[in-house]
Amino acid sequence: MKRPRTFKMVYLALLTAFAVAIHTVEAAIPLPIPVPGAKLGLANIITLLTIVFYGYRSGLLVASLRSMIGSLLTGSFLGFGFYLSFTGAVCSSLMMALFMNFYRSQKITLVSVSLAGAVTFNVVQLALASLLVKNMLLFRGYLPFLLLLAVPTGFFTGLAATYLEKTARQAGLQIEEDERAIWKKK
């Protein structure tokens, strides 16, 4: 049975709402990490699931909307942090989309895809911050710490996404196959 296009829009709206909620809660919780700007990146679980179930464009859309709406809710829209968050989210989503090709051919796991996204987010965010403050020593000084933090956070995000994907499929949710068949015909 064909599902109307409205189903995809509703699912993407729900995924965006979940990502915004996680982004907002995560921004409100201070981390006891001595590296400024370091976060757990839990909202990337939703971005990764969106890429798995709905593809690259939808994942990029959810990540972009999460960053924009989340920054509006936290009061950092168009501020320094917004530009870092938005650019990191977009580049991270693109990198995860690239690595999804390897995941779909069963050469890597979602954990690897998540790690690639976490590393990309940290490198891009730090590079942009260094450019904006015109201090490339910032990049050299913080890069090892942010890469070190990207490994456990990316690993946890990938594990959570793997678990949630399996749970969704066991519950009978087969969005990917159904949606691909519908969208290719239109």
Q: What is the compact description of this entry?
A:
With 186 residues, the protein is mainly alpha-helical. It is built from 7 helices and no strands. The two termini are 15 Å apart.
Mind explaining what this structure looks like?
The chain has helices at 5-28, 43-54, 56-74, 80-104, 110-132, 136-170, 175-185. With 186 residues, it is mainly α. It has a single domain, classed as Arp2/3 complex 21 kDa subunit ARPC3 (Orthogonal Bundle), CATH 1.10.1760. Helix 2 packs across helix 6. The longest helix has 35 residues, at 136-170. It is globular and about 50 Å long. Mean pLDDT is 83; it is low at 177-186.
Report Rg.
17 Å
Q: Write down the oligomeric state.
A: single chain
Shape: globular
The percentage of residues in β strands lies in: under 5%
Number of helices: 7
Structural domain count: 1
Task: Name the CATH architecture.
Answer: Orthogonal Bundle
- Note the run of SSEs as H and E: HHHHHHH
Care to count the β-strands?
0
Classification by helices and strands? mainly alpha
Q: Terminal Cα separation, in Å?
A: 15 Å
Largest sheet: none
CATH top level is Mainly Alpha
Helicity, in percent?
A: over 70%
Unreliable segments (pLDDT under 50, ≥5 consecutive)? 177-186
Could you tell me the mean pLDDT?
A: 83
CATH topology: Arp2/3 complex 21 kDa subunit ARPC3
Properties at a glance:
about 190 residues, about 80% helix, about 0% strand
Present the secondary structure layout.
Layout: H1 5-28, H2 43-54, H3 56-74, H4 80-104, H5 110-132, H6 136-170, H7 175-185
Helix pairs in contact: 1-2, 1-3, 2-3, 2-4, 2-6, 3-4, 4-5, 5-6
